[in-house]
Write a structure and sequence with these properties.
- By secondary structure, the protein is of the alpha/beta class.
- It has one domain: Rossmann fold (3-Layer(aba) Sandwich), CATH 3.40.50.
- Helix content is 36%, strand content 25%.
- The protein is built from 10 helices and 11 strands.
- The strands form 2 sheets. It has an 8-stranded mixed beta sheet with strand order 4-7-6-5-8-9-11-10, sandwiched between helices.
- A hairpin with a 4-residue loop joins strand 2 and strand 3.
- Helix 2 packs across helix 9 and helix 3 packs across helix 4.
- It is globular, with a radius of gyration of 20 Å.
- The mean pLDDT is 90.
- Bound molecules: zinc ion (ZN).
- The site of zinc ion has 7 residues, from loops.
- Zinc ion binds next to loops.
Length: 298
């Protein structure tokens, strides 16, 4: 498929689902115009990029998340580091679907809020289709970092990708059956607004032992060697009276290149000196993946 055909396919998909969107400035209904932009009824206009994503930010954003960071995350994802986490989330969603009455032909709508370079959403959407026998999955990936979304749109054709601000999500009310929010900031009032009445939020936060081997190296003597997610969990249950959680812990052996990538994609490296990073990048290393999965219903 040529680049032009790919872009047209993405614009058509946006056009087909344009009713899911709403203008982040005025809340107006949106329409795809000339396969080139999303426009609201009050003429606020958001371009569809050459890669096929929509930029719905009305200001430019500078984040700490640059292209190198998303490339690192993509490599770590393909190394299988997140594999058991992605399987766990997928199985939970498949199980939820089985409990529901079969709504024949109704598509399943999935939002990844803070999707980065898109690998998690792509993998989970794929699992729902293949293992969950749910052919009709509509995925939308959203992130404030344009670099991540551009990479996602370049790599994956299927989900729709948009650059947008969490505090002004560019979607109409009650559009999503599931919202994923994986190792990424939240906006609970927006999430509640966007979920269907029986929808579910899946938030993933680091557990206390997440990357403990790296924390020990970087943070010795700083008081940050251990980490507590108590505050996040309390805040979550304040917003979702009906909630539950699950803990998922496993170990992954990474080679030195992967360790480097992992360090690069986590906030750990932001305060570390290059010497520390250089010193520790020799040989294989076992690291702990420790996650808490929070589930919330309206
Ligand atoms: Zn508008």
């Amino acid at each position: 498929m040529s680049n032009n055909e790919k872009l047209l396919k993405k614009a058509r998909m946006l056009s087909y689902h344009e009713k899911m969107f709403q203008c982040p400035i005025c809340g107006g209904a949106m329409k795809v115009e000339r396969m080139a932009s999303l426009e609201c009824e009050n003429r606020h206009c958001y371009d569809i990029s050459r890669q096929g994503y929509v930029n719905l930010l009305n200001h430019s954003s500078k984040t700490k998340y640059d292209k190198a960071l998303f490339e690192a995350r993509k490599m770590i994802s393909s190394s299988g580091f997140f594999g058991p986490l992605i399987e766990g989330i997928s199985n939970r969603l498949i199980q939820m679907q089985k409990q529901k009455l079969p709504e024949s032909g109704k598509p399943l709508r999935l939002l990844d809020a803070g999707c980065g370079e898109g690998s998690h959403l792509s993998a989970i959407g794929h699992n729902l289709q293949e293992k969950g026998h749910k052919p009709n999955v509509i995925g939308v990936g959203m992130d404030i970092a344009k670099e991540g979304i551009a990479m996602a749109a370049k790599t994956y054709s299927d989900p729709m990708w948009c650059v947008a601000d969490l505090s002004q999500c560019p979607f109409a009310d009650e559009q999503f059956n599931y919202i994923l929010n994986i190792l990424s900031p939240s906006n609970y009032s927006e999430f509640r607004r966007l979920l269907t009445s029986d929808g579910m939020l899946v938030k993933v936060i680091p557990g206390g032992l997440y990357l403990q081997e790296l924390r020990a190296l970087f943070y010795t003597g700083t008081g940050k060697e251990t980490y507590s997610n108590d505050g996040t969990m309390k805040l979550f249950s304040r917003h979702f009276e009906r909630s539950g959680f699950e803990e998922l812990r496993y170990h992954v052996i990474l080679d030195s290149e992967q360790v480097k990538q992992l360090i690069h994609m986590t906030p750990l490296s932001w305060s570390a000196s290059p010497e520390v990073i250089e010193r520790m990048s020799d040989g294989e290393m076992e690291v702990t993946a420790d996650f808490t999965l929070l589930y919330g219903w309206k």
